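queue> holo job accepted (4'-phosphopantetheine)
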Amino acid sequence: MKIAVYPGSFDPITLGHLNIIKRASRLFDKVIVCVAVNSSKRPRFSMEERTDFVRRVIGKYGNVEAASFDGLLVDFAKSQGANFIVKGLRAVSDFEMEFQIALLNKKLAPEIETVFLTADEKYTYLSSTIAREMAMYNADISKVVPREIARDVLDKLSK
Ligand code: PNS
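queue> job finished
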């Protein structure tokens, strides 16, 4: 069984993330979207809020689950019996950091492969940072985050 973990801060989950989830769900038997801790970021939404957002938007994918984890990603992957880590790549600027992380994870757990999916060109500009910025100024964020969570994102962030 091919099990993949799709990790990220998801602060909040965007349509770009959801596009990667949709495509990963066709490639793997099971995909676990894992809200993880990025020690260099200070998220606006709590771990619980971000995980709840993920849970609310993956409903139509029968083989996708939401989880959260504060620890090493490879330990989480092993605990789930996952043999793949999925990451999305938007631009060359993502590559250097993602390449380093993939090499590190490979050192820690050689049996787990990192698979990169290129972002759909519709979403190459999109990030959680942009979604938060739009929400702060009360912009129409249904173009950048799933509609199921748009209201809650606006309620928390708009000035
Ligand atoms: O969406 P992000 O912030 O780019 O996701 C980065 C994340 C959370 C996937 C990464 O920081 C991570 O894997 N954190 C878990 C801790 C870990 O395993 N660190 C070693 C690899 S950086």
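queue> Residues 45 and 119 are 24 Å apart (CA to CA).
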